[in-house]
Amino acid sequence: MLFRSSTTSTQIVNEVPQTTAAYNYLKSIIPNIIKGIPLPTLYQTATTQVIIGQPISSTYEADALQDKIDIITNIIRNGPDVVTSREPIDLEINPSQEAVHAFNLLAVNKTFIKDEIVAFINATANVFNYSREYCYRDVGILVENIAYDAAFGGNQKAVESGLAYYDGVISKISGQETQTASAIDYLNQMVQAVIINSTWTNILTVPTSVAPFGTSAQVRNTVLLKGNIAADSIDSLFNIVVTIINNGPDAAPEVYKSAGPDAAFVSAEILMQANRRFIQEDTINYVNNLVKAFPYSKMACKRDVGLIVDSIATDLLYQTTKF
Questions:
Q1: What is the extent of the structural domain holding 53?
Q2: What is the DSSP secondary-structure string of 81-118?
């Protein structure tokens, strides 16, 4: 379950959405655990939450622990390069009694947390209800918007696409952010192949219970050259959308527009538009694959959750500000 790698490749390449979801659930239950408040919803009953009396931990400790989990999930999603600096652990125990109490509660609840996380994965890994028709439509709109921004040199349509997932500051896809972001990452990879006329070979199959969504073929036109010039720009535009989905409207960059299209960028735009149906259908099949059974090692998951609990609790007890 952990991002166990000393390079830039992950050992959980097919498990990143579920792993991130598991740690997001861990993040959500941390405040209750360290404040001695029973969880309102349980995914298992085999292990009981341990409640200890005064002194209770505060919101400060909860926020600090959740921030540390965010560091871990950021590395899982984006790789080791996001760790730009490290701070050695302090040799002195945090003088705050609330921090010590949080550490003790995490320690005595480690088995409860591990069993609850595994039960959460079992209960939710295969549950991802979505409208294929709406998803198909949205992929088409996203392709069109990114193609427009790529051709005209701005980011306006990408920002609008990201913000479309929110009603003000309320997510319209609450609980599905991870899967949606993963689908857009996959869409980005496919587009990168399309704009240089490279054959997209990763055509996905889906579970037998889910019929494939369409049979369109990729359109290639070798007259349209130099689409690779637009590759970095398109990657940045997709990343804008994913960043807004993951972090909310406040993460949207300043909107800017450009004067007009560049020939190489127009080439990329035409290929994206020509392959719109092909891209839509294969992205739908990618999302369908997220619904499949999720094989994973329960023993490894329990072990890794225990390591995470130990790590963030120790960081809280022996103060650090960085990972």
A1: 16-126+296-317
A2: GG-----PPPSS----HHHHHHHHHHHHTHHHHHHHHH
